[in-house]
Amino acid sequence: MRSITVAERRARLAVRHRLAPPARTDDVVEIARSLVALHATDPATVFLSVAARSKAATPALVEKALYDDRTLLRMLAMRRTMFVVPVELVPVLQASCGDALAIKQRRTYGRYLEQAGVIDGDVAGWWRDVEDATHAALLARGEATGAQLSADEPRLRTQIDAAPGKAYSKPTSITTWVLVTLGAEGRIVRGRPNGSWVSSQYRWAPIEAWLPDGVPAMPADEARAALLRDWLWSFGPAPVSDLKWWTGWTMGDVKKGLALLDVTEVDLGGTTGLLLSDDLEPVTPPDPWAALLPALDPTPMGWQARSWYLGDHGPILFDKTGNIGPAIWWDGRIVGGWAQRKDGEIAVRLLEDVGAEATAAIEAEAARLPGWYGDVRATPRFRTPLERELTS
Predict the structure, then answer these.
(1) Where in 155-286 does DSSP place strands (E)?
(2) Which phi-psi region, left, alpha or beta, contains residue 36 (left: φ > 0; alpha: ψ -120 to 50)?
(3) Is 266 helix (H, G, I), strand (E, B) or coil?
(4) 130, containing H or E segment
(5) C-beta separation of 28 from 61 below 8 A
(6) What predicted TM-score, i.e. pTM, was given to this entire model?
(7) Nearest partner of 59 among 375, 372, 293, judged by Cα
(8) Engineered SS bond to 290: which of 168, 258, 359, 361, CB 3.0-4.6 Å?
(9) DSSP, res 311
(10) CB contact at 8 A, 339 and 159
């Protein structure tokens, strides 16, 4: 069994994730491809993940790829998490993640409707009819807010109390439920935000604005295999448990996807990992490199087992639900954290002694971030202990 050291895994991470200077690129779409998908739960993450991997890309270039060229698309996928993905990957994520999520969401919302007793007759049929009418209204408008669509389709204003009798009970309209389900099914997408690039208030657009014929269908097992192959190329080697965690699938679905791939078991210092059989050659280590990665960046959120790059820094850099805050990297491992203060200053804190060369490289990375932000201020959606300390 081929043995792969931590040093080799860190070299792969640096090159495959375009974090070492020779591997960096100003191609926004290529950066997304390198990471399979960009985390987008926090809108700022998409832009700052690009900033960490490019010297010349700007927020305007990211927006151009998303909303003008439409070579990137925002969608719910793995673990019911929001991602920004290259459009060619959309069919893979739709078949491997989105379709099942849409079924689950529709079942959940249908149960709320039945419990509320506000619909006479076939609840599932009524819900599907509302979805179709909403999609048609969006096609007619081209782009719209939820409020505009609820004006076009009055049934979206149907009020439901999803937690009757609870202290937090509050009736709400089904507008967001319908839009989320249509998005999960790949019929509509989140378009431009109603504000700057850190805003999470989006206008909706029909999928036809990105893919004129809609999302091409493909078998779920084939899609799962394709996604696992992409992940193993970008994040491998790794134990199967990491694949299961990252995808959010059952172990059975992971194994079905792997059965369609040619993979090889490797030794990760006593733990068995997987690599694509055509990717067993060592990666040439790059020169030492520094990076300031944002909260929820795809690199630190790519594995469940993180000790080989995180060390003992987890408690101060992660929140209580497992979301990482802004992190400082040196040569393939996390060595500190950073934050943007209200005045725009980038505050950094090293959690270990990394030496003068590393400190200078880290300071240089921090010095170029204010130019990316400009007048924008971005507080991570998930606050971590160190990020709070640095901005207090």
Answers:
(1) 159-160, 172-173, 188-193, 202-206, 263-267, 272-276
(2) left
(3) strand
(4) helix 123-141
(5) yes
(6) 0.95
(7) 372
(8) 361
(9) T
(10) no
CA distance 12 to 281: 11
Helix (H) or strand (E) holding 124: helix 123-141
CB atoms within 10 A of CB 181: 26
Residues 188, 183: Cα–Cα separation, whole Å: 5
Distances, alpha carbon 180 to alpha carbons 140, 151, 202, 285, in Å? 19, 18, 12, 43
Mean pLDDT by 10 residues, the chain (392 residues): 96 97 94 98 96 94 96 96 97 98 95 88 94 97 95 95 79 94 97 92 94 95 98 98 98 97 97 97 95 98 97 96 96 98 97 97 96 93 96 94
Give 184's contacts (C-beta < 8 A, 6+ positions apart): 76, 98, 101, 102, 105
Which tokens hold the place of 36? 């399979």
What lies within 8 Å, CB to CB, of 34 at 6+ separation is 16, 17, 18, 53, 234
- Which two structure tokens, joined as six digits, stand for 190? 């989140």
**By the 8 A CB rule, do 98 and 77 touch?**
yes
Kindly provide the b/e burial profile for residues 234-267, where b requires at least 16 CB atoms within 10 angstroms of the residue's own CB: bbbbbbbebbbbbbebeeebbebbbeeeebbebe
378 vs 381: CA distance, rounded Å: 9
Strand 263-267 to strand 2-3: parallel, antiparallel, or no bridges (unpaired)? Answer: parallel
**Rounded distance between C-alpha atoms, residue 189 and residue 257, angstroms:** 27
| Residue corresponding to tokens 């980038």 | 346
